[in-house]
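Entry 14. Structure prediction run on the chain below.
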Amino acid sequence: MIYLASASPRRQELLRQLGVEFDVMPSNIHEVRAAGESPAQYVARVAGDKARRVAQWVRERGLPAHPVLGADTEVVIDGEILGKPENAAHGMDMLRRLAGRTHEVLSAVCVWHREKEYTALSTSRVTFRPLTPAEIEQYWKTGEPRDKAGAYAIQGRAAAFIAKLEGSYSGVMGLPLYELDEILRKIGTDGI
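Output returned:
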């Protein structure tokens, strides 16, 4: 049993897929990149901030001391974190930037357990095929990219855009399961 410090349906789906029991406790932290913070430092810090916030709530409420899982995923191109699209123009601009190019997806997990923090980072490289303006507009109109980092979902229609993936499919989806399993084994659970 773990507490999931996220409301992400994708993270919940991945945990369910593997039979991990969890309670959803979104951290609702404000995610802002600090000056001078690299994309990798940023995703690791945000994952840790989420886990620590929920661990504090668990202590304050006297809930059972299960591990707390925080995670963050960001799409990075040309050293810039794209984030989630603010509107249609922003989202379609992101897709234009990704089209025909390779970008990184950084996905960090942090498990807070017994006053200790365990963090791991997954780095994947994703190559999009070239996209036409009509394809980008049509994809945006599906609604799928609206709340996704980099304005796409690898597990959805955007799978057809991906010419090559080097790294973790589940990491690009939002929760790197290999890294999570390694942490759970380290803290003495049976892993996934």
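The mean pLDDT is 94.
Filed with the rest of this week's runs.
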